[in-house]
């Protein structure tokens, strides 16, 4: 970050803008994929950046982030807190079911393990986007999201500001979340999944059944 300037003409919808060098000169193109700070960039803020070149040899910002007072004032994006709250509530529910014996440890471990793997995959893909390297296929990310990794993906999207602005990606992501939760709900309570629950040695459905009030009062017939 050896250059300083002012971020101008930032279009947050399209995810790009221009940096006017501190000492004057031609403006430098800056894209959201190379932003290294917290939250979202805002126009008329002082930034520090590196110089790179695009495929046509034109100068562009390699990486950029807030500098000076702007950096101190930058806060964690609200989306990070929302994502953290959603993930915390979800894992609290899973932990509660496991504690009551209504969820096998394998499912809890699957969500935790795959989420961690996918979080790292997002980080790698973000760095690849910044450096112009080989990217991870979106279908691969969606596959892991469907296979219990969506909590990690949700956190990674907000922490790394990655894939959050691409509408088509977000549609598929949330469809994967709904499909995964639907499959989990089916496994937990559907009568058709009773055999599978027995194989996994748990049965939430039986624990939710209320005792017969006659038996509760008089006891079971002997």
Automatic annotation (TrEMBL):
Keywords: Membrane, Phosphoprotein, Transmembrane, Transmembrane helix. The chain crosses the membrane at residues 80-99, 105-124, 171-189. Pfam families: CSD (PF00313), DUF1294 (PF06961). InterPro entries: Ca-reg_mRNA-binding_domain, CSD, CSD_CS, CSP_DNA-bd, DUF1294, NA-bd_OB-fold. Residues 2-74 form the CSD domain. It is found in: Cytoplasm. PANTHER family: CALCIUM-REGULATED HEAT STABLE PROTEIN CRHSP-24-RELATED, COLD SHOCK DOMAIN-CONTAINING PROTEIN CG9705. This is Cold shock and DUF1294 domain-containing protein. It comes from Marinobacter xiaoshiensis.
């Amino acid at each position: 970050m050896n250059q300083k300037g002012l971020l101008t003409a930032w279009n947050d919808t399209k995810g790009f803008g221009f940096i006017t060098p501190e000492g004057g000169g031609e403006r430098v193109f800056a894209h959201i994929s190379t932003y290294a700070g917290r939250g979202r960039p805002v126009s008329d803020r002082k930034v520090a950046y590196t110089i790179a070149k695009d495929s046509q040899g034109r100068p562009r910002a390699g990486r950029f982030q807030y500098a000076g007072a702007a950096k101190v004032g930058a806060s964690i994006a609200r989306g990070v807190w929302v994502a953290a709250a959603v993930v915390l509530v979800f894992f609290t529910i899973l932990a509660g079911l496991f504690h009551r014996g209504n969820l096998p440890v394998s499912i809890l471990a699957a969500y935790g393990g795959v989420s961690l793997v996918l979080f790292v995959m997002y980080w790698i893909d973000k760095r690849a986007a910044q450096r112009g390297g080989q990217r991870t296929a979106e279908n691969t990310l969606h596959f892991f999201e469907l296979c219990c990794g969506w909590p990690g993906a949700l956190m990674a999207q907000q922490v790394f500001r990655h894939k959050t602005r691409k509408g088509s990606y977000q549609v598929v992501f949330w469809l994967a979340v709904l499909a995964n939760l639907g499959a989990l709900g089916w496994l937990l309570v559907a009568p058709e999944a009773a055999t599978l629950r027995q194989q996994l040695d748990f049965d939430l459905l039986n624990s939710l059944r209320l005792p017969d009030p006659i038996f509760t009062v008089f006891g079971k017939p002997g």
